[in-house]
Amino acid sequence: MPTPPDLIRSAYAELIVTDLAAARWFYVDVLGLVITAERPGVLYLRAFEEYLHHSLVLREGAEPALRKLAYRVRRPGELEVARRYYAELGVPVRAVPAGDTLGIGEAVRLSDPLGFPVELFYAAEHTPRFTQRYDLHPGNALARLDHFNVVVPDVRAGHEYYTGLGFGVSETIEDTEDNLYAAWLYRKQTVHDIALTAGEGPRLHHIAFATRERAQILHTCDLLGALGREAMIERGPGRHGVSNAFYLYLRDPDGHRIEIYTSDYYTGDPDNPTVRWDVRDNRRRSFWGHEVVPSWYAEASTVLDLDGGPVPTRQPAVREATVTVGADGFGTADGANGFKLGNQA
Ligand SMILES: O=S(=O)(O)c1ccc(O)c(O)c1
Ligand SMILES: [Fe+2]
């Protein structure tokens, strides 16, 4: 097997939105992301600590979907390494010229073995870093993009693919029958750049941005309440068991899920241990044992292939919401209404 490319971190995502003005209101006016550039039908956004051109691209289109997950590689030469690696894997892979995405240099675009549209790049236009432009920071200022979470029918296959790329495994959710329900994997020295959630997939579960402090997350909640848009809050605020992060999940005007996240932990030593949660532990998803709304398990965004068509999805062999999921379960094994609490059979 050829050497894998040296990925540094999750870097940007491109979402298709059906109403760019509504999306602009949510991501800029409500979440406070900085507009790096605007082109007809396309918005390029970044968070306050970021100096690359963007970490989120919003492109207007007919149906909401994920167009790209992009990782930055450590040096330009890793793009040729990537071309060889993915050609050997036998997946669709294309060289992309500089500027194909505004602000991004030459790239490699591929459909990864899990079915996701992925772009690898090194060169990107630098922009002013607003870390200390407190005169510009809103009360809910976002610091940086933190991670992607994807829904896949086979978490173990995803785990093998990403560990093959040199990702560390910070946490998992598993059971005593060797089922893997979720995994969190990293290249940068925090809990994850990518998380795998068992379910109908490939689909995008969420894109997460980090804030510096919990108060900034709470301000987003207050802001949405004040605007009468509290329905955009799907889950939280709360404390995760996995990752220990303080979190909030929002649904954007197209239903794309955005997590706001802070206070996870360092994973940079080579012997960083993997935290393994039992699927029956009520505290894994919410450390306080709060119920997880069914939509959080059931709903996710369509992903597009390299030609812009929707990628067909498959069902998982096992899913957390029908095993026993403690405070966030469904009433019966077939997912009927109601909730299981604790370790009810
Ligand atoms: O709900 S979990 O505690 O498993 C969780 C942990 C970290 C995340 O980023 C997340 O989206 C979900
Ligand atoms: Fe997340």
UniProtKB/TrEMBL annotation:
Q: Which cofactor does it need?
A: Fe(2+)
Q: Name one GO molecular function term.
A: dioxygenase activity
What are the VOC domain coordinates in residue numbering?
A: 9-123, 144-263
Q: Which Pfam families match?
A: Glyoxalase (PF00903)
Q: Which InterPro entries match?
A: DHPA_dOase_Mn/Fe, Glyas_Bleomycin-R_OHBP_Dase, Glyas_Fos-R_dOase_dom, GlyoxalaseI/FosfomycinResist, HPCD_C_sf, VOC_core, Xdiol_ring_cleave_dOase_1/2
The positions making up the signal sequence are none
| UniProt keyword annotations, A-Z | Aromatic hydrocarbons catabolism, Dioxygenase, Iron, Metal-binding, Oxidoreductase
* Cited Gene3D superfamilies: 2,3-Dihydroxybiphenyl 1,2-Dioxygenase, domain 1, homoprotocatechuate 2,3-dioxygenase domains
Similarity comment: Belongs to the extradiol ring-cleavage dioxygenase family.
Protein's name according to its UniProt entry: 3,4-dihydroxyphenylacetate 2,3-dioxygenase
Q: Taxonomic lineage of this organism?
A: Bacteria, Bacillati, Actinomycetota, Actinomycetes, Pseudonocardiales
